Amino acid sequence: MMNTYTLKMHMNNQDKMSTKKRFLLPVAVGLIGAALLTGLYFGIVSWAESPQHAAELFWEDRWIVLPIIVGFGVQAGLYTILKKRLFVPVASIGPSGPMMGAGGGTSTIAMVACCAHHVTDVLPILGLTAAATFLAQYRIAFMLVGLGTTLIGIVMMLLILVKERRKAIRMAAAASPVLETP
Questions:
Q1: Domain for residue 103, yes or no?
Q2: How would you label 138-176 residue by residue, b for 16+ Cβ within 10 Å and e otherwise?
């Protein structure tokens, strides 16, 4: 539980940190996360087939791939806000870290599942033909689960932020004297 002193220290630190930095850092992390996931997607398909095929597959599955990529970027940005305590003095980031990992991991598996049937020529050597077939057969289901996990992570992080903001507002109101008019 945060006391008034901790809240005042956090507010002083926030004053020192520029508003620009508080907004740019999570946006940058979100864009980097989305770019890395996009790179993974295009990298796997390009390696297995060709860059042209990667672009075609991306366009074909854009209805699910784009929300996964954007959702992961948003989740990465929100996690940065929570972890760095950029807007409110968050006492606990709760399960947002594991949710970020679960969302990212599931999204990555979904992207690999989407592309797995393209690497089946290489997989018999590794003994993974059955896994590739399974992933390819249920790729849309994996992608929907990945998107769902990402959305759950976003909602959880937003709930944590709202809860902590309300707590900070209550503490600030209790700490400041109320001026009464005669």
A1: yes
A2: ebeebbebbbebbbebbebbeebbeebeebbeebeeeee
